[in-house]
């Protein structure tokens, strides 16, 4: 019970550190990063990187580099363009008619819906199904939990009082 509580505290601290880091609120130049709020790139708009945590991205205009979404969807609409890669962890990617992606399209846990006239310059990789999300997110958390449990065990072993052997 105590080990599970320690893991929960570590996870909450990690989440708070990531969500309150300067990168989560940065609006440097043309990059877009959001936590929980959807991002829409307008038809005459051009941006750099787009990162979205717990939200979705709709591209009507141009993204010069990459689009990365955690627990949301990516939609590249007609005439929308992404110069680099599109990566989605959660709900999938949709490429409408005349959508363009210069790099790879990768979706973990959701489908890739691609119109016949959409163009992708690289590979299209789809790991559809919940099992892939469990592998991508669950396995690292399980390893982290094992490392924390090992450290707790070593600390308890090192701080345990020594009892002399009786003869």
At a glance:
By secondary structure, this protein is of the alpha/beta class. Helices cover 31% and strands 31% of the residues.
Summarize the structure in words:
The chain is α/β, with parallel strands linked by helices. It has one domain. It is 31% helix and 31% strand. The protein has 3 helices and 16 strands. The protein has helices spanning 2-19, 22-25, 130-159, and strands at 32-35, 39-41, 46-47, 50-53, 57-59, 62-63, 67-70, 73-76, 81-82, 86-89, 92-95, 100-101, 105-108, 112-114, 119-120, 124-127. The strands form 3 sheets. A 6-stranded parallel sheet has the order 1-4-7-10-13-16. Strands 2-5-8-11-14 form a 5-stranded parallel sheet, with no helix packed on it. Helix 1 crosses helix 3 (130-159). The radius of gyration is 22 Å and the shape is elongated. The two termini are 37 Å apart. Mean pLDDT is 84; it is low at 22-28.
